[in-house]
Specification:
- The protein is α/β, with parallel strands linked by helices and about 300 residues long.
- It has two domains: about 5-90 and about 290-305, Enolase-like, N-terminal domain (Enolase-like, domain 1); about 100-285, Enolase-like C-terminal domain (TIM Barrel, Alpha-Beta Barrel), CATH 3.20.20.120.
- It is built from nine helices and eleven strands.
- The protein has helices at about 50-65, 75-85, 105-115, 135-145, 165-170, 190-200, 225-230, 235-245, 260-270, and strands spanning about 5-20, 20-35, 35-40, 100-105, 125-130, 150-155, 180, 200-205, 220-225, 250, 305.
- Strand 2 and strand 3 (about 35-40) form a beta hairpin.
- The longest helix is centred in the N-terminal third of the chain and has 16 residues, at about 50-65.
């Protein structure tokens, strides 16, 4: 079995901030296992582990595997990458749905881009909030609603509001324009209280990757799965099954992986939630691609880390 581990580095088109961590370059690992490829790429500000920790655990696993041993894997990104590398992928029965549009940036830039939009406004858009003064973001959402009254907005707050801030902000909006609010608060109990207080649908994302206990509640509309943060395919599939049992949507979402990782997530979205557009509109924030003209990793753009 020929196994090779590479490292990539792709500059973002502009620095992105993840939970107050500013990142200029997206870095990660690509694992080639025989003829299959997978990705291991912790997201700074979101993942528990650093890339250096993930790289070391991956090398430790591969060194042991080379000697006929199997080491336990603890880090979520490494669990996911190793599982994908060894997974028997089924033949796709459907063409993956196009991801919904992601809007992020300053309120003035987002409003300008919406005003200059040349096509029909999309039916559904994901909008990042909780990064600028609340009154600026509220004015932005109202203006986007005015320009595109038929568009439903997914408001992704990345746990940046308190319970009281969420009540205040959402109390000034027309709920008919909101598909759901994703992770308005860091604590699950606060999310439940916001949902009960406003009646607006909610989605859980980062809470799923934490150690906090959570459960289903009447206003829960979706579970947003970021496999790179969650870990093994078995764990992810367990969440899919729980959501289906409660008639809750599953959205497969990116952690700003490379083009290869994005492609893997699109396949998982087609297998696990074929009726639901995934949250994968992140490749446009990368300034380059690690894939060649045949849509395979271009090893000339990668740094060799380990080889069996």
């Amino acid at each position: 079995m020929d196994i090779t581990l590479y490292r990539y580095a792709i500059p973002f088109t502009e620095p992105l901030t993840f939970h107050k961590v500013k990142v200029k370059i997206r870095e990660g690992l690509l694992l080639k296992w025989g003829k299959r490829w997978s990705e291991i790429a912790p997201l700074p500000g979101f993942s528990r582990e650093s890339l250096e920790e993930a790289q070391q655990e991956t090398i430790n696993f591969l060194e042991a595997f080379k000697k006929g041993k199997t080491l336990p894997v603890k880090l979520p990104s490494v669990q996911f990458g190793l599982d994908c590398a060894r997974h028997q992928w089924s033949v796709l029965k459907h063409t993956p749905l196009a991801p919904y549009l992601l809007l992020q940036g300053s309120p003035s830039d987002i409003i300008w881009s919406w005003q200059e939009w040349l096509y029909d406004y999309p039916q559904r858009v994901k909008l990042k909030l909780g990064r600028y003064p609340m009154h600026h973001e509220l004015a932005m959402v109202r203006e986007l609603n005015r320009l595109a009254p038929k568009t439903k907005f997914i408001l992704d707050v990345n746990q940046n509001w308190t319970r009281e801030e969420a009540w205040t902000f959402l109390g000034h909006l027309d709920p008919s324009h909101i598909e759901y609010v994703e992770d308005p608060c860091a604590r699950f109990e606060d999310v439940k209280h916001v949902a009960a207080h406003t009646g607006i649908g909610m989605a859980l994302d980062e809470i799923l990757a934490s150690d906090e206990e959570w459960d289903f509640f009447p206003q829960l509309r979706a579970l947003v799965l970021k496999p790179m943060l969650l870990g093994s395919l078995e764990k992810c599939r367990g969440l899919v099954d729980r959501a289906r049992a409660h008639n809750v949507k599953i959205v497969i979402s990116s952690s700003h992986e490379s083009q290869l990782g994005n492609k893997i997530l699109a396949q998982l979205a087609t297998e696990w939630s074929p009726e639901q557009p995934p949250g994968l509109d992140t490749l446009r924030f990368l300034s380059d691609t690690i894939l060649d003209d045949n849509n395979e990793p271009d090893v000339s753009k990668l740094k060799l880390i380990w080889r069996s």
